[in-house]
Amino acid sequence: MNDVIARPLRADAERTVRTILEAAERTLGRDPAATMEEIAAAAGVARTTVHRRFATREALITALATWASRQLAAAVEEARPETTPPLVALYQATVNVLRVKISWGFSMNVNLAQGNEAAAIQAGVVDSCDRLFARLREAGELRADVDPVWARRVYYALIHEACQDVSAGRLDEADTDAIATRLIETLLRGVGRPATR
Fold it and tell me: Rounded distance, CA 100 to CA 77, Å?
């Protein structure tokens, strides 16, 4: 049923799918066991409309994860990580990614079977980020002895923790610029005292 998202849809059908996906994200974010009926009610559509687009709950969740992964890929791509100065690209990608991950928190954490479209999209995002981190090291933003893949993994962990803090109300979701600045500062400068000589 992934082809529901992949095939071009009429504008009204596309709006309906988007409405269902947004409602599913909100509903499942509050209650991961929510039913298709609850999702339909949250979307303001009939249950049959949801079932016409997504044959099963699993198909809906798979489509939701794929949709969110596409948003994530677009967020990274909008930062132009291959051509923009690497530190600028890192900052812009961080702001963009935080917005997606905060808005699509349930979808971004769905565990799907291997070989699905969402996993392939996210693998492309990882490759893009690894190239950006290699550029950061070449530009001297990372120490020469730092493995760019390790740095990217630490960066991902910081993003995850920032999103958890937003979810728990410890950080303000509306202030993604400040969150991104703090996150990058932590990544590049650390949290310890500078070494004294």
Answer: 13
Q: Measuring CA to CA, how many Å separate 130 from each of 108, 115, 152? A: 19, 21, 7
d(CA 105, CA 28): 10
Residues 6 or more apart whose CB falls under 8 angstroms from that of 80 comprise: 89, 92
- Catalogue the long-range contacts made by 148-154 (C-beta closer than 8 Å, 24 or more residues apart): 151/187, 152/126, 154/187
**Residue 196 in domain:** no
Q: Do residues 53 and 101 touch, judged by C-beta distance below 8 A?
A: no
Task: State the Cα–Cα distance between residues 54 and 1, nearest whole angstrom.
Answer: 6
3-state secondary structure (DSSP) of residue 144: coil
130-161 as b/e, with b when 16 or more CB fall inside 10 Å?
eebbbbbbeeebbeeeeebeebbeebeebbee
In a domain, 70, yes or no: yes
Domains held by the chain: number: 1
Task: Note down the domain range covering 18.
Answer: 3-189
pLDDT score for 75: 96
Q: Which residue has the tokens 């740095």?
A: 151
pTM of the model: 0.84
Model confidence pLDDT, tens digit, residues 60-92: 999 999 999 999 999 999 999 999 999 999 999
Q: Is 183:94 a contact under the CB 8 Å cutoff?
A: yes
